[in-house]
């Protein structure tokens, strides 16, 4: 029940996955996954816990080897051109991959130096500013809140402007305000032309962010399309008139929103 | 070898050294136990131990230095485990860097940290009356053996660092290594031990290394012990390095 991509694109996709298979011991986690992600788009891979989302991301980030199938990222084969793939990607894993003992700025400088860039200090200062971390830049990451940590994590992934970024469950464990901060960062990325593949188990996150959404279930992509296309898979909604109640999230954000803004300064 | 290997290793070494500089307790913790052993054996048991040497501190120090290293290397497993746990290891692995530099940075950090601990122990021993007439060459030889021993044990430590499921698991492997000097010539001459124990003590690496260092400090001819010691160190190093890299490759494929 896969939906074909809307228009035939002249350029090759940023991520092309075909027939990807992976087993851990006896358990077949991926049973032939097919994905195409257009350049500069945000693609959400949805699935429940243990569906294999992280496995897909790890294979694409050259951290795991697939048992079967092909995967190309930015035009490079993940199995045979791993070094070129690594040059073109950044991975933000499920747990904020930051160094707790270093300061925020030192984390950014470290990654910039490992990417062999000139002026790592200037790059770090620029990113601290873009992610509203300038004040916290000189503090050790251990003292950061979950949202700040995630922002730093994503900032670290932007260094060197890799054309493809993987975000594995970027908002798991974050409070609502921090989630919105992360969403804004991701949207800004895509606006800059970066291709983003994100995994999530939150349906609203995919709705908010993604140009296309694929659902991974029992090792296969069971559906793949835009939000609109996905909604058409179900019978048209019945129109009902319901008094619009504020959601708990609306209430929460209204009450604490002012405080959050003050903290950001 | 990747052309960035040296540069990347240096950058990551700088990171780990910064960790140590910010939590010097790892060096203090490493040094406390060997110092306690040294005080205990010199001032409590030492009087009753017949070593045939005029000063028990002089007799004891080589073994204490090895215990220091055996406990110090568990921090390599610990730090590596934290990297694996926190996800920064995966970030490094997904970056365009020389992948082996991630491990080498930890190994070199271990050499630096252990060297600092060893210097602390030697200074304490000097306060307790340790004396040696060894010249520059003698000290260089001792330092070389100790660094080689550290290198070999550190590569052992890499294995639990990569595979452990918990912090305790990552450092538990070092207990038998710390215990090994007790069944060697480190504290008492092996001649005083009963048959099977003595046979084990005389044929395990610590005895050869301790004897070699002791002779170097005493400016005696070192004889075959130094070659046995070097053979043990290089043998352990090669095996541990191969196993660690095998574990590593399995981890990242």
In short:
The complex is a heterodimer of chains A (about 260) and B (about 250). Chain A has about 260 residues and is an alpha/beta fold.
Tell me what you see in this structure.
The complex is a heterodimer of chains A (265) and B (253). Chain A is α/β, with parallel strands linked by helices and 265 residues long. Chain A has one domain (15-102, 161-264): 3-Layer(aba) Sandwich (Rossmann fold). Chain A contains nine helices and ten strands. A six-stranded mixed β-sheet of chain A has the order 6-7-8-3-9-10, sandwiched between helices. Chain A has a four-stranded antiparallel β-sheet with strand order 2-1-4-5, with helices on one face. By secondary structure, chain B is mostly helical. Chain B has one domain (5-251). Chain B contains twelve helices and no strands. In chain B, helix 11 crosses helix 12 (225-251). The longest helix of chain B has 28 residues, at 100-127. In chain B, 42% of the residues are buried. Chains A and B meet through helix 2, strand 6 and helix 3 of A and helix 1 and helix 5 of B.
Provide the CATH topology of chain A.
Rossmann fold
Shape of chain B: elongated
Distance between the termini of chain B: 19 Å
The ordered string of helix (H) and strand (E) elements of chain A is: EEEHEEHEHHHEHEHEEHH
Multimerization status: heterodimer
Strand content of chain A: 15-25%
Number of structural units classed as domains of chain A: 1
Helix content of chain A: 25-40%
- End-to-end separation of chain A: 48 Å
Query: What is the top-level CATH class of chain A?
Result: Alpha Beta
CATH evolutionary superfamily of chain A: P-loop containing nucleotide triphosphate hydrolases
Q: How many H/I helices of chain A?
A: 9
């Amino acid at each position: 029940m896969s939906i074909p991509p809307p228009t035939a694109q002249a350029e090759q996709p940023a991520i092309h996955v075909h027939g990807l298979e992976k087993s851990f011991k006896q358990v077949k986690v991926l049973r032939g996954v097919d994905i195409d992600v257009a350049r500069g788009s945000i693609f959400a891979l949805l699935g429940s816990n243990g569906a294999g989302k992280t496995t897909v991301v790890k294979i694409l980030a050259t951290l795991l080897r697939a048992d079967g199938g092909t995967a190309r990222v930015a035009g490079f084969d993940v199995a045979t051109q791993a070094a070129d793939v690594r040059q073109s990607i950044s991975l933000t894993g499920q747990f904020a991959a930051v160094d707790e003992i270093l300061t925020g700025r030192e984390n950014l400088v470290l990654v910039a130096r490992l990417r062999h860039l000139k002026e790592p200090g200037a790059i770090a200062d620029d990113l601290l500013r873009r992610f509203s971390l300038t004040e916290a830049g000189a503090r050790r990451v251990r003292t950061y809140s979950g949202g700040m940590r995630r922002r730093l994590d994503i900032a670290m992934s932007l260094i060197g402007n890799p054309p493809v970024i993987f975000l594995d469950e970027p908002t798991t464990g974050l409070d609502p305000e921090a989630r919105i901060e992360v969403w804004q960062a991701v949207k800004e990325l895509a606006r800059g032309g970066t291709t983003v593949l994100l995994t999530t188990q939150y349906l609203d996150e995919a709705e908010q962010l993604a140009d296309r959404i694929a659902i991974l279930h029992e090792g296969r992509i069971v559906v793949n399309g835009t939000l609109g296309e996905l909604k058409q898979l179900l019978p048209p909604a019945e129109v009902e008139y319901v008094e619009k109640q504020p959601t708990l999230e609306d209430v929460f954000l209204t009450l604490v929103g002012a405080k959050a803004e003050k903290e950001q300064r | 070898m990747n052309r960035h290997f040296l540069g990347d290793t240096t950058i990551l070494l700088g990171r780990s050294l910064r960790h140590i500089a910010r939590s010097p307790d790892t060096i203090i913790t490493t040094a406390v136990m060997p110092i306690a052993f040294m005080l205990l054996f010199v001032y409590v048991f030492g009087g009753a131990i017949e070593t045939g040497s005029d000063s028990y501190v002089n007799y004891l120090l080589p073994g204490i230095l090895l215990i220091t290293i055996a406990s110090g290397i568990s921090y390599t497993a610990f730090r590596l485990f934290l990297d694996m746990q926190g996800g920064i290891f995966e970030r490094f692995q997904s970056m365009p860097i020389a992948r082996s530099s991630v491990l080498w940075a930890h190994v070199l950090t271990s050499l630096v940290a252990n060297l600092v601990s060893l210097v602390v122990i030697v200074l304490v021993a000097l306060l307790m009356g340790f004396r040696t007439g060894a010249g520059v060459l003698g000290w260089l030889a001792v330092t070389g053996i100790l660094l080689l021993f550290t290198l070999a044990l550190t590569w052992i430590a890499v294995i639990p660092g990569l595979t452990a499921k918990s912090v305790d698991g990552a450092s538990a492997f070092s207990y038998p290594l710390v215990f090994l000097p007790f069944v060697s010539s480190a504290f008492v001459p092996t001649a005083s031990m009963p048959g099977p124990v003595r046979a084990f003590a005389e044929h395990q690496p610590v005895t050869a290394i301790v004897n070699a260092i002791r002779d170097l400090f005493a400016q005696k001819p070192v004889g075959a012990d130094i070659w046995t010691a070097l053979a043990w160190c290089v043998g352990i190093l090669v095996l541990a390095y191969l196993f660690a890299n095998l574990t590593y490759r399995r981890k990242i494929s």
